[in-house]
Design brief:
The protein is of the alpha/beta class. Helices cover about 30% and strands about 25% of the residues. It has 2 domains: about 60 residues, Beta Barrel (Ribosomal Protein L25, Chain P); about 170 residues, 3-Layer(aba) Sandwich (Alpha/beta knot). The chain has 7 helices and 11 strands. It has a 6-stranded parallel β-sheet, with helices on both faces. The protein has a 5-stranded mixed β-sheet with strand order 1-3-4-5-2. A hairpin with a 6-residue loop joins strand 4 and strand 5.
Length: about 250
């Protein structure tokens, strides 16, 4: 009996026998060479883990027997990322790296200065980003799948958003607000996140930043608290800024 050094995605984790989809089945049986009786680590991206024993080593429909489901972190992460649409493959690069951290979602924003890929179908971009988020979920072995949202107009998104905002801005504070980091690190005596905490969204603009009007709207936001965070003394590309900002908060 062996356990492949990988985690497999199974959206319907439950005690008993389950069947992995064709992609996960092929990864287990063909790539990892898992066989009858081997043990697979499973996750559903919704805070649950399980260990399953292979009962049918079919590369198209691998079946595993699950005896126990674990829920180490029942609450979705409070921190989210909202980033302006970027050109080329920059958004996919951001997703691949950012989704390895414990953030709840990544939203693509259409801003005044955003540069969307030329002649690109953003639905395809979103789908590719969703696949990268799934790869990051399994690679990082975290409990929650980072959701991919948008693209959506910045003003429309801000109008419907309720929670705290952290704007990456040259005029911001050098360190993350203590009340924000305290909220992100809070757990009760049972190890669960604070259910009453409001979400926190990190705002990263396009190359050239948010427009003056967008910055004003963020600072005047009334749906929650608004902060500004300085990322250092050098000018960063948007894709770099997103990762640096997450590093200051997580």
């Amino acid at each position: 009996m062996k356990t492949p050094d990988s985690r497999f995605y199974c959206p319907n984790i439950q005690s008993g026998r389950v069947t992995l989809d064709e992609n996960e089945s092929a990864h287990a049986v063909k790539v990892c060479r898992a066989a009858l009786g081997d043990v697979l680590e499973l996750c559903d991206g919704q805070g649950h883990f399980a260990v399953g024993t292979i009962v049918t080593a079919d590369p198209k429909a691998c079946q595993v027997e699950i005896s126990k489901v674990e829920t180490p972190k029942p609450q979705r992460p409070l921190l989210n990322l909202a980033i302006a649409c970027l050109k080329d493959d920059a958004l996919e690069e951001v997703v691949f790296h950012a989704a390895q951290t414990e953030i709840g979602s990544i939203t693509f924003l259409r801003t005044d200065y955003s540069q969307e890929p030329k002649n690109s179908d953003l639905h395809k971009l979103v789908r590719r980003s969703e696949l990268k988020s799934l790869v990051s979920l399994k690679q990082s072995k975290k409990p929650w799948l980072t959701e991919i949202c948008g693209p959506v107009e910045f003003r429309e998104w801000l109008k419907g958003y309720r929670g705290d905002l952290i704007l990456c801005d040259i005029d911001g504070e050098k360190t993350a607000p203590k009340e924000v980091t305290d909220k992100l690190n809070y757990t009760d005596t049972n190890g669960a996140c604070n259910e009453a905490s409001t979400p926190i969204t990190l705002l990263v603009g396009p190359e050239g930043g948010f427009s003056p009007d967008e910055i004003r709207m963020t600072r005047e936001f009334t749906g929650g608290k608004s902060y500004a965070l300085n990322l250092g003394n050098t000018r960063l590309r948007a894709r770099t800024a997103a990762i640096v900002a997450l590093g200051k908060l997580l």
